[in-house]
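Researcher: Please predict.
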Amino acid sequence: MSSINPECTKLKKEYDECFNSWYVDSFLKGKKSNKCDELFKEYRACILKTLKEKKIDTLIEESIKNSTLNKKK
């Protein structure tokens, strides 16, 4: 699957492959350290940049705020 931004797709694929390998080869065998942390940070930074550029981050924040306000009523 592609990423929200084509520029992030390569990072997403690299992270997905790393995570899947780590999950099967390490996590399921009781090893908790994650060798994919740096890839995740890079991919996350790319996604956050895209969300800001498309002003999606603001929409998410407003939705959360509105949802929180509605729960208090």
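Model: Residues 11 and 39 are 7 Å apart (CA to CA).
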